[in-house]
Amino acid sequence: VGSQGRDMLQGPRKGAVALSAQGARVFYANAIFKLQKRGFIGPAYTLAKNVMPKISETEAAALNSGSVCFDRELFEGNPSTKRLLEKYKIKISPEEQAFIENETEALCEMLDSHQIDKDQNLPPEVWNYIRENKFMGMIIPKKFGGLGFSGHGHARVVEKIAGRNGAAAVTVMVPNSLGPGELLFHYGTPEQQNFYLPRLAHGIDIPCFGLTGAPNGSDAAGSMQDEGVVVQENGVLGMRVSFNKRYITLAPVATVVGLAFKLRDPNKLLTKGKEGITVALLPTEPNQFAPEGIKGLKVGPRHNPLNAAFMNGTVQGENVFIPMSCVIGGEAKTGYGWNMLVECLGEGRGISLPAMAVSSGRLSCLAVGGYARVRKQFKVPIANMEGVQEKLAVIVRNTYQCVAGQHLFDAILADGDKPPVLSAIMKQYCTERGREAVNEAMDVIGGSGIIKGPSNYLATAYCAMPIAITVEGANALTRSLIIFGQGLNRSHPHLLKLIESIQKGDDIIGFNQELKNIIVHAMSNLGSSIARGLSVQFQPKGNDIAGYYEAQMSRLAANFAFCSDVGMTMGGGLKTAEYISGRYADILSNLYIGYACLWYYQNHKNVKGLSKVLDIAMADCCYKIQEAFFGIFSNFPIPGLGPMMRVLTFPRGREYFQAKDSLRRDVSNLITTPTEVRALLTDNVFVSKKESDRVNQIARAVTLAFEADNVLSACRKEKREPRDEEQKLISAAEELRDKIIQVDTFEAIGKEHRGGFMTPTWTVAKLEKAEQ
Fold it and tell me: Strand, helix or coil at 664?
């Protein structure tokens, strides 16, 4: 369609959406009125009461925690990049930037990953530096002695450290995201805040948090068997608690333990608070809240998480007496632990673990992209080989998606929102894409990736990737149970109110209104879906990559909103239909990441070549959304509804495909040559000042090797020998190349492999004689 045709379509296209939505509202409002007159609402109410799931107390806490923001727009089917740009901004403060450039750089220079892996611990000087420079108190407000950093500042510090050493990054990360500090700040009594927060900020106390036990795993609340009973002993109100926690990061070195347990009060001793999950803070030494200490508290036995060197272990106690003064918030906050955990720790889940994934992607872009330019096979850089380019393109795509998602999420937090659904998306999506990027990176560097030693910059991250996938809710369950299940209830504009009307037991008027709202909402989105599906057929990609994908995402968001409403026909069955729920989650996650990519691009569109990265990232999002839709259509359990959704949302069948080979080639070249995109995607990666450091060598070699290869190419083309200056450049590149392709060797690894035991005590003659 030419420009004249496009101009003609602009008005009708927007009008079609408005007419479809408005017409649907009027039509279905009248339809609901007729249903009421014919007596269908009563039976529908009875049916809904039977099929809708009961909401447990812990589920209600999750649904009522945090806030709803951009995720609501996705369920409404009406998101907008323009609104994102107007509302959400992100930046690092000068103080945070100075900390990254000074204290964080200094910490990274102290880290020797190979030695840390051998020792299975950070060296004493690193522990002291982390504690003395308030790395464990980044999020604690300044009035309590902390650094008072934003979520984005915290993420950038963790990101930089993780590119150097994962164990150090986890050591810094946990107190700022999964530790008691934020719980104390939001819910602690003034006495608890004034005592503990300065000690945590200055590294005097090292915190850990005990939530997971053997029976509960990812079902942290429902299957928890750690229980306590309210008692009064020697005039002190307290609790007798038995607990057996595992997988607790920093537990072996912790001086204060956050503990979650189920509290019962059979003797009705509580005058405030209630029974239920409770969070207490247990010091390992006596203090003003536990003058006698916590006798029977045992911390220290270590786990070995895939040889990652961070501290991880158990927290145990049998019939331990805990004074009521140790409960975070005091007696009044007994029974409110799950609300506290969901509200505070979910935010950290969306910051810290994604920062680790972003770090892996950025490091891969810098070091592996550079290695591909330096390393030659068959006399050409492997960066020019299509099999390698295919993997490099995945690294670029995944890194860009994770960086965009991270920046938008941090901007949402900076605006004051705490969205648990988006937090779950960030954790699951970024860690999965980070794992994929590192896997591809390991394939590219080949032998130098599998030989461990001081020169190997990627093996530690590769080995630790399953840890990020598992912690803070295993990704498999986060995807299949949490993202869409919680998102639908929490972020849908009408469903939660409908469920609440059913839970009341007699609110047929409220049910009637919300049912009408849901049906009108569904039909409005159907109208938008059809209209936008038609309009995108006349939206050429051309040079406006962002505009093209904005139209595609708008169409897919309307499809999602409509199909989510149809999904509600499964009632409580949707809660256990994990195949279906997982596919809905894939759509929701890729919609969020897609809009994050568009938002990030608009904030960095001056970067030359970034439109190609946007193209490959958005093509991937659209394709995965489409495939998830078709998986729902083929497997929807209610007969007829799957094909109906397919015909209404994808009448022309599949329309989206992965990026073409030519685009992959162009994108891969953006990180193997000195480009603006390479500079953007490798921002905040630590590069040691030591010239013997492998990442330092690669960072220096990229431009050198690229220029040397260009000289050699020109010489071949002109059929001449290199000039003196050119030869110096070539020789310098070759010298650095030779260093980079070397791998580590050791005289011995573990037990001695040479010695008398390796000398055979038999001979051929002896064996032959024995055989005779």
Answer: helix
